[in-house]
Design brief:
The complex is a heterodimer of chains A (147) and B (172).
Chain A: H1 18-40, E1 63-70, E2 76-81, E3 84-86, H2 91-104, E4 109-114, H3 120-133, E5 137-143
Parallel strand pairs in A: 1-4, 4-5
Antiparallel strand pairs in A: 1-2, 2-3
Chain B: H1 2-29, H2 39-57, E1 63-66, E2 87-93, E3 100-105, H3 114-124, E4 138-142, H4 148-161, E5 166-170
Helix pairs in contact in B: 3-4
Classes of the chains: A alpha/beta (147), B alpha/beta (172).
Chain lengths: 147, 172
């Protein structure tokens, strides 16, 4: 019986890094995928691609993204706001959504993602709607150049 | 006599067999340096790296932001006065989607492309030995039919040149 409780040889105290690297990589991939899925909820549009570009990454805690969707001819077909599509004639619904967000947080920033083929007056109308609500920070979204 | 001759041969064969076994064992374990390496772990890491780079390369187009601040209270007014000494850039739509005409009011140089517009504006900026401060108003006058692409490219050129006070005006 005494033999069963005999201590074996001392174990190595070296830490095995392989599983840790595995876990770190899996977490990294997980977050990259999550970020991609959240951006996929937004409608895919052809963004303006200025070169050289002054576009940069901006971080804001409260952002409202409005996407302007248009057809091949550049005719406005819909707006997308908070994952919801609204028709081009329903500008009052858009204004209401803006007002609700502004009431919740006056420092809210609006990102305008407009298809490059759309008419520029759409952006003007959206900027006017933002200004009427009281929102001051409006960013234009552009595609970043590929490195 | 015959038995005596066989004994060293037998010893030699036993010796060879034990050496062969040792060789087999060492071949199984690999060379001294790799004895401690775990192939499974390495394959895990390699596959993770592979998946990571596949995910990164298939990522959707990267988006950046051109920041802008709207004037406070300006939209409640019926009309807004154009500042005294603005830089005025007019954009007119051309015959096709990509075609547009740029005009820099008050400048001897007229830009043909957005890059040229950026270069001229950079020269006008104080940092480029010009007279205009960064907060000097720049008024973008959009003609009828100007696309978002042309509008954003013009805005981008002005931001890139270092100007911060940018305003939009629709020409009538």
């Amino acid at each position: 019986m005494r033999g069963h409780f005999r201590r074996g040889p001392p174990r190595s105290l070296l830490i095995n890094l392989t599983p840790m690297i595995d876990v770190v990589f899996l977490l990294l991939i997980f977050f990259v995928l999550i970020a991609q899925f959240s951006s996929r909820q937004r409608a895919q549009v052809q963004l303006p691609r200025p070169q050289p570009s002054a576009a940069k990454y901006l971080y804001s805690s409260d952002v409202l993204t409005i996407t302007v969707i248009c057809d091949q001819q550049g005719t406005l077909s819909a707006y997308q706001i908070e994952g919801r599509e609204i028709g081009p004639e329903q500008i009052d619904v858009l204004a209401h959504a803006l007002a609700v967000r502004y009431k919740a947080n006056p420092q809210v920033e609006v990102n305008l993602r407009a298809d490059r083929r759309a008419d520029g007056k759409v952006i003007e109308a959206l900027m006017a709607a933002c200004a009427r609500t009281g929102i001051r920070h409006v960013n234009l979204v552009a595609a970043m150049p590929q490195e | 006599m015959a038995q005596k001759q066989h004994i060293p041969q037998l010893q030699r064969s036993v010796e060879y067999r034990s050496r062969f076994r040792q060789l087999l064992r060492s071949a199984h374990k690999g060379p001294r340096g790799l004895r401690g390496a775990s192939w499974t772990g390495m394959i895990d890491v390699v596959f993770n790296l592979l998946i990571f780079f596949v995910v990164i390369t298939t990522a959707s187009q990267r988006e950046g932001f051109l920041p802008g601040d709207l004037p406070a209270q300006a939209w409640n007014q019926t009309s807004t006065d154009v500042p005294a000494l603005p830089i005025r850039v007019s954009i007119y739509a051309g015959n096709s989607f990509d075609d547009c005409q740029l005009e820099l009011v008050g400048s001897e140089r007229s830009p043909d492309t957005f890059r040229q517009l950026y270069e001229i504006l950079s020269d006008m900026h104080v940092s480029g030995s010009g007279l205009y401060e960064a907060d000097n108003p720049v008024v973008l006058s959009l003609g009828a039919g100007v696309s978002v692409d042309q509008m954003v490219n013009t805005y981008n050129a002005v931001v890139l040149a270092g100007f911060t006070n940018i305003q939009f005006v629709r020409s009538r």
